[in-house]
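pinned: reference chain
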Amino acid sequence: MQTTTQTFATVYATNACRHAARHHSVIAERPFAGSLATRKVAANPMAHGGVTVTVACRACGATRQENRNGRHVEAGAWHRA
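pinned: its structure tokens
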């Protein structure tokens, strides 16, 4: 008889990670470097002028950049590590 116990890391390694908000770690913070808007990501001009933060997903290692200015956030697209 086989037991099928899966850890959190195993589930995310085998399935597509959805980068849940609770699994982010800030890995770098620097002065504002420009808009992160693309065809798929809308611009948020209110988030410009603060800091640009690089965030990593703890589950799969994917990263993205976010522009933050007070409560305003402009999140870029995720990139697999």
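why pinned: The two ends are 37 Å apart (CA to CA). The helical segments are 8-14.
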